[in-house]
Every structure is written in C-alpha cells, then in structure tokens.
Design brief:
The structure is a single chain. With 155 residues, the chain is an alpha+beta fold. The chain has a single domain, classed as Thiol Ester Dehydrase, Chain A (Roll), CATH 3.10.129. The chain has 3 helices and 6 strands; from the N terminus they run ααββαββββ. The protein is globular, with a radius of gyration of 15 Å. The relative contact order is 0.21.
Length: 155
C-alpha cells in the first residue's frame, strides 16, 4: 500500500504501456527475475522471488540486488509522470539496509515525493516477505533526472 501522497496527473496518457515497455528492456531486471507488478501515476511496485543465485554468503538476497529493485521501483514511479518523449536516469540515491533481505520474495515500492520538470525526488521501501509476514529491510531516497527528448532504447 502506498503512502498517502498527493495524486499526480501523468503527462502521458499512455504512461503505463511506455513504462512497462521500458522495464521489459532492462536486461538487469530480467537477469535477477524481477517483475513490475503494480503501476500508477507516481508509484511502481517490483516483486522479486528468492533465488539462491542472487544471495550472499548467509543466504540472504544480496544488498546490491536490494538496491537494484529499489532504484528501479522509484525510477519507474518517476517515469510515470514524464512526457511520452522523455526517459529517466538516476542521478543519486541513498540506501539504508535495515534488516537482512530474508524472505521468500522481496517487494520494492517506489513513489514520487516531488515531481519536477528536470529533477524528480523519489523514495522506495523494500520488504522481505516470508509466510505473508512483511518485514521492512531497506529504505531509499533518490534523485531522478528527466531526459527530455530522449526515449528509452536510444544511446
């Protein structure tokens, strides 16, 4: 469930198809098995099933992978609010790992805090879910740059 943020109006009426197509282009998300499950203006949710291939030495999902899904969830939340000819790029993020990512799946919930024309401020929370018990394992704050006139898939 997303935080109570203002309702945002997308600049692109076809934002969902555009954002989902962008997610499908991300080979990194395919590599780890992440899925874009929920999408609405200013919000995106990514799920990731536990897989031994993405764990660290204690069997928890690696912190770098936690950062990947937090970054993508918040980045795609931002992308829902950009015009049709605009892509996004992470400028920076700060990730706090609060607990081991010890779950049957992880859920990353990204949302826009403040949309700007060029810079969008976002946040994400990542939960480890085991037997339908949710444990917050990471929080992130992020700055996204809107790249006007540059669609996804172009160098």
């Amino acid at each position: 469930m997303r935080h109570e943020l203002p309702l945002f109006q997308p600049k692109d009426p076809d934002y969902a198809a555009r954002v989902r197509a962008s997610f499908d282009m991300q080979q990194a998300m395919q590599l780890i098995g992440a899925e874009l499950v929920e999408l609405e203006p200013g919000y995106a949710e990514i799920h990731l099933a536990h897989d031994p291939k993405i764990t660290q030495q204690h069997g928890y999902i690696h912190g770098g992978v936690v950062g990947m899904i937090a970054d993508s969830a918040a980045g795609y939340a931002a992308n829902t609010l950009t015009p049709h000819d605009t892509s996004v790029l992470t400028v920076e993020y700060k990730l706090n790992l609060l607990a081991p990512a010890d779950g049957q799946r992880l859920v990353a919930r990204g949302e826009v805090i403040k949309p700007g024309r060029t810079l969008l401020i976002t946040r994400a929370e990542v939960f480890a879910v085991r037997d339908e018990k949710w444990a917050l394992c990471a929080v992130m704050q992020q700055t996204i740059m809107a790249m006007h006139g540059k669609k996804d898939g172009t160098a």
